[in-house]
Amino acid sequence: MNSKTIASDLLSIGAVFLRPQQPFTWASGIHSPIYCDNRLVLSDPEVRNRVEDGLALLIQTYYPECQMLMGTSTAGIAHAALAAQILNLPMGYVRGENKDHGRANRIEGKLEPGTRTVVVEDLISTAGSAVETVKALREAGAEVLGIASIFTYGMKSGLDRIHAAGTFNHSLSNLDVLLEVAVEEEFIGPEWRERILRFRDNPSDESWMNENQ
Length: 213
Known about the structure:
Blueprint: H1 3-12, E1 16-18, E2 24-25, E3 31-32, E4 34-36, H2 45-62, E5 68-72, H3 77-87, E6 91-94, E7 107-108, E8 116-124, H4 128-139, E9 143-152, H5 156-164, E10 169-174, H6 175-184, H7 191-201
Parallel strand pairs: 5-6, 5-8, 8-9, 9-10
Antiparallel strand pairs: 1-4, 2-3, 6-7
Helix pairs in contact: 1-6, 2-3
């Protein structure tokens, strides 16, 4: 699947929204020129089909031995289910923490020890939820082949966390490609491209906000 096509799709439906002149505020308090909500993919059948077909092809290409897909809770669940349907594979998902009722499960779905699994995530930023999902699956005895995601910012903190966990991520598209498309399609002016990349490479440094616009 062409990463520029996916980037164009995400921009067109507002799943990745660029607003450098009116930054978003993250929960950490950091001001960001970009906001990503890939849940919106589910509401557009044409884009959704391209994304899920892309995820299925990505998994076949990079993780051909995969026996089961596991979605991150909650954003990865639907994408794991749809990709699993295309691939005719079983799927499940991993909660952020154990349920406080019933069987107190954290992992939902039948997971046998040794099952070769791929984690499906919608967005990789700091990679916290994806890596925690990998750890939970390993603790349950799964063999985690890696992560498949729709979009990645390519932040150093996320890359470092994935590397430290001894796993891999493959995404359908990424911030570098998306910014190229955003300039081509006039979502932003070319002067903003490098400034947004500077934010990506050092989110705590807000000097990109203070330059003359």
